[in-house]
Write a structure and sequence with these properties.
The structure is a homodimer. By secondary structure, chain A is an alpha/beta fold. Chain A has three domains: about 5-45, 434 Repressor (Amino-terminal Domain); about 60-160 and about 300-325, 3-Layer(aba) Sandwich (Rossmann fold), CATH 3.40.50; about 165-295, Response regulator (Rossmann fold), CATH 3.40.50.2300. Chain A contains twelve helices and twelve strands. Residues about 280-290 of chain A have low confidence and may be disordered. Chains A and B meet through α4, β1, α5, β2 and α6 of A and α4, β1, α5, β2 and α6 of B. β2 (about 95-100) of chain A pairs antiparallel with β2 (about 95-100) of chain B, so a sheet runs across the interface. Chain A binds a DNA duplex (16 and 16 nucleotides) through α2 and α4.
Chain lengths: ~350, ~350
DNA sequence: GTGAAAGCGCTAACAA
DNA sequence: TTGTTAGCGCTTTCAC
């Protein structure tokens, strides 16, 4: 059933039916009722492509997921974020189109999306510090919003980020309050913006207490279990090994638990571990977390909010860029590890 | 730059240019060269919507992700699978459109996708045993492929599945060979097809050895860390508690490790644990896995293969449905837990 | 308040 | 081998 058929059934012109369905004011209320009823009855759905061709809009938003040959891993948080964004899109009548892209191909993909006109806007994931994608999208005039931030980009743009710096600064402060001074940092890959910000939070907390920074205690890498295992094994061989660790994700923390266990130590008792796990908060179901975690209330909600920002931008392109900084929620589990103040 | 502009530049008709670009045989090689060069030079990209309108195809494939209010969790494997599928789509010139859908809304969404005509085919995720979506899609004549299977559906359709039954049967056999007879099963939600198959593999292995089944040792639930923690805590209170566990995902295994630890036991030494972790194989980086895992070589590759099946179906609708059963790869880690044969 | 007609950018019969 | 024309399903002037 298309518009032509529907208007034939009603004995009206396509124009009138279209107007009735799209809420134009000039159609009489009686006609509108009839039209809407008939559309409902025949479960008429306007053809997206035809509508798009006529209006110049595609009613779709693209998410571009970069996959480098370096780190092939897909962030486990990704599904949740997408789910949240999907809810907003559905509510606003947008489709979500996903492109998984080798990072070497990214520029071409963005340009193509624009010229093929199959999206009205784009969400940029996993920004690096001076991410070239932002200038590119600004250049071609495609509305976009970034999940995260690119610190070294000065011009304003839409973004939503979690306050990584403050989370790590607070977590470090927490450990410092317990009397820890040797705190290992297991960060993500430091070309990623989030990792850079987390590191600066860690450094600032140490600096504020006048504690010197030991480069041997700072690692960055892809967040696998094995990364945590090996990093901690190596740090434990240092003459003055850490009494606490700050970790960028729960995944390496699993390896840490194992490394400590191999050394006869228990995580959360002999050694403190704090993870920032917006990644895997669904691993924990109850309140009995043996880690102290800096977790975000909901990745999904973040997806929803970022989608809303982008939709707003698309419907009113004159609107100035929106930004949103979410504060990580700190959750204290059952055990926090040793309190060195008591010694 | 659109077709009209491009043909004007070349002094040819739109038709000829279109034919040259789409590889039609009747255009002269000389003209084709010229056209292709000009298209390249002006980086011409045909408008997807217009092309779709004219051809009746949308060059897009939909993935529908059901999210029930019951289990809100998004499977962490999802991102990897999607990444694999995305590669195939990109190679074949398809876009991927994602819909995250409340399961109550699913039927409407499928019908809409069809009548709005914005996808040429659909991938069905997370099938239940007699999944109604399959009949629905067959009814409206939309090409589709299922990631997994729906056991109770008799009519043929495209699917790709991992051999869940054989994986769990082999894993159970492995434990039986070690002398275990009390084996706890921590399964996923049993309305899911995969969980049902895994359970039957477990049962068959026990049956083949004449070992009676204890319903108290079989659990099903959503695969969270806490589920593993609580299930094992409760099973350990049984008079004859399990010496081994078979787990549907690595996530509950984390809780199991904790529950055992609380009881002074070490997973992989005092108690055997086998997980089926196509979920989180990226947790493990090296060869030093303390679990025996039945893991699939690559979720990503599975995504690629399923996409290829669907693409094949779309390009030739007369082709009979394809199916593909992947065999889980069994990986033995450092330690397998106690060998009861020696006692 | 309603309709006729043009056009969005492309493909595909049909002609030449 | 190339061009002309109609049409995909919708929106949008412009006229009535």
């Amino acid at each position: 059933m298309n518009l032509k058929d529907l208007s034939a059934v009603l004995g009206l012109s396509q124009t009138t039916v279209s107007r009735a369905l799209n809420g134009y004011p000039e159609v009489s209320e009686a006609t509108r009722q009839r039209v809407v009823a008939a559309a409902e009855k025949h479960s008429y759905r306007p053809n997206t492509r035809a509508k798009g061709l006529a209006t110049g809009r595609s009613m779709a938003i693209g998410h571009v997921i970069p996959v480098s040959t370096q780190h092939e891993m897909v962030n486990p948080v990704f599904g949740d974020f997408i789910a949240g964004a999907g809810e907003s899109y559905a509510a606003a009548g947008y489709d979500m189109v996903l492109s998984v892209v080798q990072d070497s191909q990214e520029e071409r993909v963005y340009r193509d999306m624009f010229s093929k006109g199959n999206v009205d806007g784009i969400v940029v994931h996993a920004p690096e510090m001076q991410d070239p994608r932002i200038a590119l999208l600004q250049g071609i005039g495609m509305p976009f919003a970034v999940h995260g931030r690119a610190s070294d980009i000065a011009t304003p743009y839409n973004w939503l980020d979690i306050n990584n710096k403050s989370a790590f600064q607070r977590a470090t402060d927490f450990l410092l309050d317990l009397g820890h001074t040797r705190i290992g940092l297991l960060n993500g890959l430091e070309n990623m913006d989030f990792a850079h910000r987390r590191r600066s939070g860690y450094l600032e907390a140490l600096h504020n207490r006048g504690i010197s920074v030991d480069p041997q205690l700072m690692r960055s890498g892809e967040m696998t279990e094995n990364y945590g295992y090996q990093a901690v094994q190596q740090m434990m061989e240092l003459p003055d090994s850490p009494t606490a660790y700050l970790v960028s994700s729960m995944i390496p923390a699993i390896g840490i638990r194992r490394a400590l266990h191999d050394a006869g130590l228990v995580m959360g008792r002999d050694v403190s571990v704090i993870t920032h796990d917006d990644d895997l908060s669904y691993l924990r179901n109850g309140d009995d977390v043996p880690l102290f975690t800096a977790t975000r209330s909901s990745v999904r909600d973040a997806g929803r909010q970022l989608a809303d920002i982008l939709i707003g931008q698309i419907s009113d392109p004159t609107k100035p860029p929106q930004t949103k900084l979410l504060e990580a929620e700190l959750t204290v589990g059952r055990s926090t590890g040793p309190n060195l103040r008591g010694r």
